[in-house]
Write a structure and sequence with these properties.
The chain is α+β, with helices and mostly antiparallel strands. About 60% of the residues lie in helices and about 10% in strands. Strands 2-1-3-4 form a 4-stranded antiparallel sheet.
């Protein structure tokens, strides 16, 4: 079996190491999915994630190798929609109770409450969605910058 070399965070080539040692270093966290490895036979390095199965990090990823923001943003968006729907239903029930009173002035107020509540609901959802999308864009910028950095490092080698 061929021996391997790996590159540490400062770009220094270390090795040779056996395939078993690669797995041990990966389990210890010394070699991560983005770590570059090359075999003795090949001068072109590849990412460790192409050779080894790394678990997908989740919420308790203490190394912050992957952001969970998109998952949480989706969850927050669903909660916000449900909260708005509940508030809107409450608003409609109150407006219906005002209409049941039969008073002309109460009917006008109930109508205004329904119209303003609908407009307020739509505007609130729109602005909330925009804010959540801005947060996602910020995190995607980081992801793209990381990919650009990795490509430039590959081109240097």
């Amino acid at each position: 079996m061929a021996n391997w070399y790996y590159y540490n965070a400062s770009g220094q080539e270390l090795g040779p190491i056996s395939p078993q040692q690669i797995k041990e270093l990966a389990s210890q966290g010394t070699i991560g999915p983005e770590t570059l490895l090359r075999s003795e036979k090949d001068r072109n390095p590849v990412k460790a994630s192409q050779l080894l199965d790394f678990p997908k990090p989740g919420f308790f990823d203490i190394g912050f190798t992957r952001f969970v923001t998109n998952v949480w943003i989706s969850f927050i968006w669903i909660i916000i929609i449900m909260a708005h729907a509940l508030g809107f239903i409450t608003l409609l029930v109150r407006a219906g109770m005002m209409l049941a009173g039969g008073d002309d002035e109460a009917s006008l107020v109930a109508f205004l409450v329904m119209v303003s509540g609908t407009v307020g609901l739509l505007l609130s959802l729109l602005f909330t969605r925009i804010i959540l999308e801005v947060i996602i864009v910020i995190f995607r910028i980081e992801t793209h910058l990381r990919a650009i950095r990795a490509k430039s490092e590959e081109q240097k080698n």
